[in-house]
C-alpha cells in the first residue's frame, strides 16, 4: 500500500501492540485496527475482520497473548473462547493446541512473555510456509505453461474465494502459487470467482491481484463450467480450510462445483494448503468436517459502494424469505489432482498425506 509492505496481522515492537488489516472495509477503504483484548481478537475473527484458515489461527494465538496480558490465569478460558469463534478451519484448533502446549507448564508470571514469543514465531512461520507453498506450486504452473502450445494466450488460472495474503499472514496459499509463478516468468491471467455470499473473490482477491499487477477478470460463480468447456481455463488453484488424511478438501462453498466441472473437462484441480490445514484425525470429509452456517443476511443482502461513494446494503429477495447459508463444502479427494504444501506436492491419497504427520 503506497509503497509500504503490510502483513494481514503484525506485532509492533515500538508500542507492544497487535495490528490487523480490517478486511470488512476492503476493497473500498484500507483501514488497520489495533487488537487490545481477548474480546477484540474474538470479535475480529467472528466479524471476519480477519478470515482465511491460517490467519484465523495466528489471530487466535495473539488473542491468547492479549488474554494473558489482561489476566495471566485465564489461559483455559481464552483458549475455549477463541476455539468457539469459527468451526470449520482446523488451523484455529491446531494453533491453539500448540499455544496451550507451550503455556500449560509455564509459570504464571512468565506466561505473557512466552505467549508473545510463540505468537510471533507462528506469525513468522506462517509467512515462510506460505512462501514455500508458492514455490512448490509454481513448478506445476510452469509445467502447464511450458506444455501450452499457444503462447499467444496467457496461462488461465481459476480461483475461488480468497486464498491470498489476506487469508494468511503473507503470500497466501493458492495466490502464493500464482505470485511465485508470475515471479518465475509464467504469463498469467486469473479468473476470479466472485464467491457469494460474502464475495471474498470480488472484494479481496481482485484487490490483492490488482496490487500485485496480476492480470485478472472477475466472473460470477456460475461461469467457471462454461469457461472450462470453452478451453479458457488451464487449471484451478484453490485453498483449503480443512483437509482429511484421505485428501478430501473443505473450502469455501462452491469449491466442489468447480472441482466437478474441472473433472468433467480434464482441467487440473490443485489445492494449496499448509500442513497445519490437514486434520490427520479425519478420513471422511463429507461426514466429519463441521460446516459453518452463517448469518442469512449474507445471502439475502448485498453490500457495496453506491454512485455517491457510500457503502450501503441492499436486500435482494422478498422480505422474510427462507434462506440457507452454508459457508463451506467438501470436495472429495477423487476430484483433486494434486495437493500443494510447503513440504512438496502430493496426490490426494492417505498413503501420501500420512507421511506429513511427523
Ligand atoms: O470464510 P473465509 O473467508 O474465512 O473462507 C476462506 C476460504 O475459504 C479460503 O479459501 C481458505 O481459508 C483457504 S485460504 C488460505
Describe this structure in words.
- This protein has helices spanning about 40-45, 55-70, 75-85, 90-105, 110-145, 175-185, 200-210, 225-230, 255-265, 285-290, 295-300, 350-355, and strands at about 10, 15-20, 30-35, 155-160, 190-195, 215-220, 235-240, 240-245, 250, 270, 280, 300-305, 310-315, 330, 340, 345.
- With about 350 residues, it is α/β, with parallel strands linked by helices.
- A 7-stranded mixed beta sheet has the order 6-5-4-7-10-15-16. A 4-stranded mixed beta sheet has the order 11-8-9-14, with helices on one face. The protein has a 3-stranded antiparallel beta sheet with strand order 1-2-3, with helices on one face.
- A hairpin with a 4-residue loop joins strand 1 and strand 2 (about 15-20).
- It binds 5-S-methyl-1-O-phosphono-5-thio-D-ribulose (MRU).
- 5-S-methyl-1-O-phosphono-5-thio-D-ribulose (MRU) binds near residues 163, 168, 173, 239 and 252.
Rg measurement, Å: 20 Å
Profile the largest sheet: 7 strands, mixed
Number of domains: 2
Helix content: 25-40%
CATH fold label of the largest domain: Rossmann fold
Overall SS class: alpha/beta
- Helical stretch tally: 12
Mean pLDDT: 97
Q: Low-confidence parts lasting 5 or more residues at pLDDT below 50?
A: none
CATH superfamily of the largest domain: Translation initiation factor eif-2b, domain 2
Q: In one word, what is the shape? A: globular
How far do the termini sit from each other? 38 Å
- The number of distinct β-strands equals 16
CATH architectural name of the largest domain: 3-Layer(aba) Sandwich
Amino acid at each position: 500500500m503506497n509503497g509500504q509492505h503490510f502483513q494481514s496481522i503484525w506485532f509492533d515492537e515500538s508500542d507492544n501492540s497487535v495490528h490487523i488489516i480490517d478486511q470488512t472495509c476492503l476493497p473500498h477503504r484500507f483501514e488497520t485496527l489495533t487488537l487490545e483484548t481477548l474480546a477484540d481478537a474474538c470479535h475480529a475473527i467472528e466479524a471476519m475482520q480477519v478470515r482465511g484458515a491460517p490467519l484465523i489461527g495466528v489471530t487466535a494465538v495473539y488473542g491468547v497473548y492479549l488474554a494473558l496480558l489482561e489476566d495471566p490465569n485465564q489461559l483455559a478460558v481464552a483458549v475455549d473462547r477463541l476455539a468457539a469463534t469459527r468451526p470449520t478451519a482446523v488451523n484455529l484448533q491446531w494453533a491453539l493446541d500448540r499455544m496451550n502446549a507451550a503455556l500449560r507448564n509455564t509459570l504464571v508470571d512468565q506466561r505473557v512473555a512466552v505467549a508473545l514469543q510463540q505468537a510471533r514465531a507462528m506469525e513468522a512461520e506462517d509467512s515462510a510456509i506460505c512462501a514455500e507453498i508458492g514455490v512448490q506450486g509454481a513448478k506445476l504452473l510452469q509445467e502447464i505453461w511450458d506444455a501450452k502450445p499457444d503462447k499467444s494466450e496467457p496461462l488461465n488460472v481459476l480461483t475461488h474465494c480468497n486464498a491470498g495474503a489476506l487469508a494468511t499472514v503473507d503470500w497466501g496459499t493458492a495466490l502464493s502459487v500464482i505470485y511465485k509463478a508470475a515471479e518465475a516468468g509464467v504469463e498469467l491471467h486469473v479468473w476470479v470467482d466472485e464467491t457469494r455470499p460474502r464475495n471474498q473473490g470480488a472484494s479481496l482477491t481482485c484487490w490483492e491481484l490488482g496490487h500485485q499487477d496480476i492480470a485478472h477478470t472477475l466472473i460470477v460463480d456460475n461461469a467457471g463450467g462454461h469457461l472450462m468447456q470453452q478451453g479458457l481455463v488451464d487449471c484451478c488453484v484453490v485453498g483449503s480450510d480443512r483437509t482429511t488424511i484421505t485428501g478430501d478438501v473443505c473450502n469455501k462453498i462452491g469449491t466442489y462445483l468447480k472441482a466437478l466441472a474441472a473433472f468433467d473437462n480434464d482441467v487440473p484441480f490443485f489445492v494449496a494448503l499448509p500442513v497445519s490445514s490437514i486434520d490427520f484425525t479425519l478420513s471422511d470429509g463429507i461426514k466429519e468436517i463441521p460446516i459453518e452456517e452463517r448469518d442469512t443476511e449474507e445471502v439475502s443482502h448485498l453490500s457495496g459502494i453506491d454512485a455517491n461513494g457510500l457503502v450501503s446494503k441492499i436486500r435482494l429477495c422478498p422480505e422474510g424469505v427462507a434462506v440457507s447459508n452454508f459457508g463451506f463444502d467438501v470436495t472429495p479427494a477423487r476430484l483433486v489432482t494434486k495437493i500443494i504444501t510447503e513440504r512438496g506436492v502430493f496426490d490426494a491419497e492417505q498413503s501420501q498425506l500420512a507421511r506429513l504427520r511427523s
